[in-house]
Specification:
single chain; alpha/beta; 4-stranded mixed beta sheet; 12 helices; 18% strand; binds pyridoxal-5'-phosphate
């Protein structure tokens, strides 16, 4: 047999982390890495945060899993926190980002079904989007590389150019249920939606009774310096998908909705065996308590400014490599003039700095949100050394 026991769907690198310490990962062979990837925007409190560990340990020793057939004080507590701190009136818990997006898609479709317009099932989505790897979420993306081998895709998605309001407007038809959009495209290359675009989608949604569904799986939970990125646009969505950072490393996602948008989500409409399990709720509650502190969010915005300003100066030294800096808060991208993957590998393997390559020739920087001046200084040291040796290497 040539297939390994672990299904080979990931092109895994040689780094094999076995331990985490604050903003560092330590691999099997003892090497230390500065983690500016954070599990792709997941470990927002870094690794081994005492508060998160304590919450999970206490809950594990008390009650790990119960069915959603029973009442859930743990889910009610976290739902209450999310409702208090966001646009939402109601929450459905999932185990991942893709499941959260799935729940959002169902909520948007069922809104129209409940209003007697079942023909309005189509979501307008945007080029280079990433919404997950389930059949519905790959169908929601125009990225052909994710479709290969999995046809037929699910009907009900129509792709438009990102940040092109006219295209979105022209795509509205009798079957349109709403828009599904990332305020900042993550996998697509840290592409930030313009204010005019998101506000325009909100206005179109209001005008045509459409659902504005935001996918904040990557950009949500404090990463941009506000709890959710939409706050910086002066708009509210109808439905929002959150995941990744919300569990701080524990698998957790959620579909947040207004009361109006959730009118079709009645008894029996949706479900999940593990969604909302007490362990995930303990993790999510601990994360929410920390992230919603004003001083925490201010610190994220401050750290984001520091890293960004430094990057803007730094890239001037390597005009052949970098084109510009993108992003908001601590969701940052270096737009490159060359393929970012070789540099990402060089920084990782030779300089112990973990970053993530993204689409649109972009190198993503997604550090834990708890980085301070020490980690930022270490980041610049590793980046400077890394780019200097990279520029001299054959890969450049
Ligand atoms: N949506 C966005 C914007 C994402 O970035 C991701 C994951 O990268 C997902 C959805 C899917 O999340 P998950 O991998 O937890 O299913």
């Amino acid at each position: 047999m040539s297939i390994p026991p672990l299904m080979p769907v990931y092109p895994r690198c040689d780094v094999r982390p076995v331990r985490g310490e604050h903003c560092h990962l330590i691999s099997e062979d003892g090497s230390r890495y500065l983690d500016f990837a954070a599990g792709i925007a997941v470990n927002l409190l870094g690794h081994s945060d005492e508060r998160l560990i304590g919450a999970i340990q206490r809950q594990a020793a008390t009650l790990m899993h119960v069915s959603n057939l029973y009442g859930s004080p743990q889910q009610e507590e976290l739902a209450q926190k999310l409702v208090r701190h966001s646009f939402a009136d109601t929450v459905f818990f999932t185990n991942s980002g893709a499941e959260a997006v799935e729940a959002c898609i169902k909520t948007a479709r069922s809104y129209h079904h409940a209003g007697g317009q079942a023909e309005r099932f189509e979501l307008i989505t945007f080029n280079n989007a990433f919404h997950g790897r389930t059949m519905a979420t790959i169908s929601a993306s125009n990225q052909a590389k994710m479709h290969k081998g999995f046809a037929p895709l699910l009907p009900g998605f129509r792709y438009c150019e990102f940040n092109d309001l006219t295209a979105a407007k022209n795509a509205i038809g009798p079957n349109t249920a709403g828009f599904l959009v990332e305020p900042i495209q993550g996998e697509g290359g840290v592409r930030v939606a313009s204010k005019a675009f998101l506000r325009g989608l909100r206005a179109l949604a209001d005008e045509h009774d459409l659902m504005l569904v935001l996918d904040e799986v990557q950009c949500g939970v404090g990463r941009t310096g506000t709890l959710y990125a939409y706050e910086q646009y002066g708009i509210h969505p109808d439905i929002l998908a959150t995941a990744k950072g919300i569990g701080g490393g524990f698998p957790l996602g959620a579909c947040l909705s207004t009361e109006k948008a959730a009118r079709g989500m009645t008894f029996g409409a949706h479900g999940s065996t593990y969604g909302g399990n007490p362990l995930a709720m303990a993790a999510g509650s601990a994360v929410m308590d920390i992230v919603t502190e004003e001083v925490f969010l201010k610190q994220v915005a401050h750290a984001g400014e520091m890293v960004r300003k430094g990057l803007e100066q730094f890239i001037g030294n390597y005009t052949g490599l970098f084109e510009g800096v993108r992003g908001l808060g601590l969701m940052l991208g270096l737009k490159m003039k060359v393929e970012p993957r070789p540099l990402m590998q060089h920084l990782r393997d030779r300089h112990g700095l973990l970053t993530v390559a993204a689409g649109d020739m972009t190198l993503r920087l997604l550090p834990p949100l708890v980085i301070g001046e020490t980690e930022i200084a270490e980041f610049y040291e590793r980046l400077s050394d890394g780019c200097a040796s990279y520029a001299l290497s054959d890969a450049a």
